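Hi R.,

As promised on Friday, here is the backbone we talked about, encoded as structure tokens. Could you run it through your design pipeline when you get a chance and send me back a sequence?
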């Protein structure tokens, strides 16, 4: 067994081609062109069901799972989430618009962001957003004011920073006190926000929210977060007589990018977190609020893959070998952004020994335009070979750019042995459609 087949939906065919969700990636590349994003819809649906079954079993039927749609947001994703009875988290009017355009009922959405403009707030409210996750006092007052103008009351959760460093990349650690997100407990600002929210006439305080970071493998991070948050919930209950109805523990569960990343059992982790919380509420003498999770990456990341066609090969004697592909930082910014790890495979030549090291680089005019360094590939790798970069379902399409006027790849969904285009490939003409 090839240890680089890091996800259950990967295998190798008789012809030595990499199979994804049982389908031949080389045929898919030929049919839809490269660069190409593939997404395994069956796996996405399976992940939603795993989460829902786990939270319902551990926390009861009032608990929710919000898909953090920033991980991958386009109409078909919101349709799938609707189909699977998921809630979603949205962070911008663009995501709200896309959800609405997919027929997603916005009552099942919560609206994040550390800076919602008045226009954003009005747009979300006029489309009956379920809940605002309020990040700061200005926003809290603005939501109250716009709700008053509309003669309604608006449910909100308050985003609380529990002061937990999940020991992960600095750039994706958000639960520490010094953060642009939320109200810190340590400084008293969390309590102040709760007190003010309870006093505002048009605000319905639904509960509290925390999100401490991303690519978290250790249940202990969620347990420590739940510990701090439940203690806070109990403090607010004793001080103000207000018992939170919902406690959202955020997202952040990790996925495997490379073989040495651990494999996470999401259901087992949620069950460990639940066990701790059920004990903790007894100790604190409070009822258990509805508990929600907000996963993005762990729903879609390894359900995705990017296919490229190899172009020029360059060997610099005494230094290294390069293989350039027909995409790059425009479809995958994560190596440039935080040196992210990836597994890169020769999709059309999986049986050959991977006996030479290459830096797999993009086509952009930027030296940092690297997919991954030091990747073992067959020495005979040449122009025209299909190269697969694994685990690109989260934060790739949604972070894609048009640098160098490079159109975005298509997104093709794989479902029950068939495939279909969920997002069309951009054309050069698309790039000019807004130019005057
Ligand atoms: C990004 C984010 C998530 C999802 O994080 P993942 O690591 O993709 O699971 C959830 N909630 C909030 C508030 C976020 O900012």
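Update: got your reply. Pasting your designed sequence below so it's all in one thread:
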């Amino acid at each position: 067994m090839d240890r680089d087949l890091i996800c259950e939906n990967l295998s190798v065919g008789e012809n030595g081609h990499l199979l994804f969700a049982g389908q031949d990636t080389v045929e898919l590349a030929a049919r839809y062109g490269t660069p190409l994003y593939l997404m395994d819809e069956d796996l996405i649906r399976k992940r939603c069901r795993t989460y829902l079954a786990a939270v319902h079993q551990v926390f009861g039927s009032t608990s929710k799972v919000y898909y953090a749609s920033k991980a991958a947001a386009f109409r078909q994703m919101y349709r799938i989430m609707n189909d699977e009875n998921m809630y979603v988290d949205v962070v911008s009017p663009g995501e709200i618009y896309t959800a609405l355009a997919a027929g997603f009922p916005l009552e099942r959405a919560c609206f994040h962001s550390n800076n919602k403009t008045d226009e954003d707030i009005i747009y979300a409210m006029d489309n009956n957003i379920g809940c605002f996750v309020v990040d700061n006092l200005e926003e809290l007052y603005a939501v109250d004011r716009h709700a008053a103008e509309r003669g309604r009351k608006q449910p909100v959760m308050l985003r609380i920073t529990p002061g937990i460093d999940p020991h992960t990349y600095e750039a994706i650690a958000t639960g520490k006190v010094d953060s642009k997100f939320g109200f810190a407990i340590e400084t008293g600002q969390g309590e102040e926000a709760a007190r003010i929210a309870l006093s505002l006439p048009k605000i319905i305080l639904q509960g509290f929210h925390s999100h401490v970071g991303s690519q978290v493998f250790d249940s202990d991070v969620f347990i420590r977060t739940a510990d701090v948050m439940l203690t806070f919930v109990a403090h607010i209950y004793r001080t103000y007589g207000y018992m939170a109805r919902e406690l959202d523990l955020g997202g952040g569960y990790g996925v495997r990018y490379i073989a040495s990343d651990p494999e996470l059992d999401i259901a087992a982790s949620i069950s460990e977190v639940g066990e701790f919380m059920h004990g903790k509420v007894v100790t604190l003498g409070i009822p258990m609020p509805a508990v929600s999770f907000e996963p993005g990456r762990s729903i879609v990341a390894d359900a995705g893959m990017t296919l490229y066609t190899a172009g020029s090969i360059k060997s610099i004697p005494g230094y290294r070998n390069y293989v350039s592909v027909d995409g790059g930082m425009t479809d995958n910014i994560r190596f440039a952004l935080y040196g992210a790890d990836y597994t890169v495979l020769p999709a059309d030549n999986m049986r050959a020994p991977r006996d030479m090291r290459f830096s797999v680089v993009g086509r952009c005019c930027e030296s940092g335009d690297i997919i991954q360094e030091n990747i073992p590939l067959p020495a005979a790798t040449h122009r025209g070979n299909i190269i697969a970069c694994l685990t690109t379902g989260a934060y790739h399409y949604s972070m894609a750019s048009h640098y160098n006027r490079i159109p975005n790849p298509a997104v093709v969904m794989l479902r029950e042995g068939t495939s279909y285009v969920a997002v069309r490939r951009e054309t050069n003409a698309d790039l000019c459609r807004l130019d005057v």
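One thing I noticed while checking it: Residues 68, 70-71, 89, 112, 211, 214, 250-253, 294-298, 394 surround pyridoxal-5'-phosphate (CB under 6 Å).

Thanks again,
M.
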